[in-house]
Amino acid sequence: MGTGRARGTMRWLVLGASVLVIGGCATPQAVERASAKADAALAHSTTIEGQVAAERQARQALAADLDARLKTMSADQTRLARRLAATDARLSADEARYKRRFASLEARAAQPSPATGPVAVSEPAEADFMATLVKRARNAAAHPYQPPKAVSTVLTGMDYPAYERLRFKGAVPGWPDAALLHPSFYPAGYLFHHAVKIHLLEGDKPVALEFPVGDFNFDTAVAKQIAGPVPLAGFSLYYPFNQGAGVNEFLSFLGASYFRALGKGQAWGLSARGLAVDTAVPHHAEEFPYFRDFWIVPPRPGANKLEFYALLSSPSFAGAYRFVVQPGTQTVVDVDMTLFVRKSVKRLGIAPLTSMYLQGRDGGPRFDPLVRAAHDSDGLSIETADGRWLWMPLRNPKRLAVDEMSFDGIKGFGLMQRARRYADYQAWGMEYQKRPSAWVTPTGGDWGKGRVVLVELPTRTQTNDNITAFWEPADRPKPGEELKFSYRIAWQGDQQTLPPLGHVVSTRSGHAADGDETYVINFRGGDLDDLPAWVHLEPVVSVDGDAKLIRSWTAKNEATGDWRLEFTIKQKGNAASRVRAHLAYGKRALTETWDAKLPLD
């Protein structure tokens, strides 16, 4: 009522003022116009008042919300302060308790023992099993070599598809149910003509593993002809790389002394061997030692490491091996070996690696036109004892090629797969970009003087392993001699061992009509990545042999960020020439050394 009366009064006051403004001549039309203006002014005033009231309410609500939040934050801070104080108190109490415990242990250690003699500590018998196995190998080397007997032709007569379908489906007695690592077993047959013995080693009780034919999915016709336990050719190990997604095979020992491994996300590729004997010796057959017995130590529940032992035999050697494997992003295989020499050999290869190289992505003969590249490894990397890094690009030669590089010692070597993109290969389903590199690191002492030997054989298919690399000691072993070596093989994927300097990422070559040969090497990494294109780097190219360096230059490729080294040589004869090349700034090398025998067939 009061508000309505006030608005009415205001309306007539405005109307009266309007009439007065008219100058005393109050016509009906003028009054109506004045009344309309008054109504509009009142409506606008009402709108303004409503907006002001709404804004006042919003501000009041915001202030209330901020006040509530501040109170909540204050309460949270109080609770956090109390929790921190409680944690500090608990840690202080734990520290005081541990100090008292350590003081008590030190006091006990200072007191004389009442025992009259030393106290025996119980340890697993497998801790001494290597010593037992070394004695067996020494004794075996003192006797003539006995070749293994071949298994039944029922098994060796299987073709590849039939053997590939075989799966182990049995249980392993004594294997912990809660173990993360699980074994599987290969039956003898197909190319694997000799049986091996596999044992579980728990304490001092090795137990031979034997499996009936029903533990493998043989064809019915073949199964009926197998009497007794199935002869075994090797074993594999499985591990859950991805929790909750099943287990993955990551290690395989099958055939002679061959074994291979892979890490998380990798695909099967190159292999390793326990020993290489007389490899690529002219007019001399290669000898293939084999693992004839295995002893596997069951893992503790939850452990991600596995230890096992093997006895190696060949006409020239007997050896005891201890392996410790640990799967992961890069799977690691530690090897300790003791060899006893039965007879002299022409060449002994330690930590041999075996791979395949058919064709590269940047030139050379094309044996498979449907893919850009096909290889398990694209180069041999070496770190010398004095800190030099060498890179030797692999090739598929026209004839057997053997390269021996002598060193006073090495820190490591490996067959590497540096090209890690699908586009590098364009080989659908082959997963070359996921195949591992294998880096060998000597452990347990210096290997001394010797040679890294690279053997390359010609091949026309992707199924032939035509690449081998190994360490050869400078001194040939003598009959009756004992040799010890320890090393680690890291099976690496995208994260692999690279020099701290710039490293080679690709090698290309071309032949001119006049016989000149041009090579283009791309480098990346190290200090190179931070250098602008205007910096002048020196191309350092040396040629040994029947060839002459014509020209060389280097520049940064702005499109890729790589540094390009190009040089041209002229062959004077048919003999191969050794060329070494790297980039330098002043006298300081900025890259590893590209090292190859040319021409690259």
UniProtKB/TrEMBL annotation:
GO terms for cellular component: outer membrane-bounded periplasmic space. Keywords: Periplasm. Its main location: periplasm. PROSITE patterns: PROKAR_LIPOPROTEIN. It is found in: Periplasm. SUPFAM superfamilies: E set domains (SSF81296), Galactose mutarotase-like (SSF74650). GO terms for molecular function: carbohydrate binding; catalytic activity. Residues 131-595 form the Glucan biosynthesis periplasmic MdoG C-terminal domain. The keyword Transit peptide does not apply. InterPro entries: Gal_mutarotase_sf_dom, GH-type_carb-bd, Glucan_biosyn_MdoG/MdoD, Glucan_biosyn_MdoG_C, Ig-like_fold, Ig_E-set. Pathway: Glycan metabolism; osmoregulated periplasmic glucan (OPG) biosynthesis. One of its GO terms (biological process) is beta-glucan biosynthetic process. Belongs to the OpgD/OpgG family. This is Glucans biosynthesis protein G. The lineage of its organism: Bacteria, Pseudomonadati, Pseudomonadota, Gammaproteobacteria, Chromatiales.
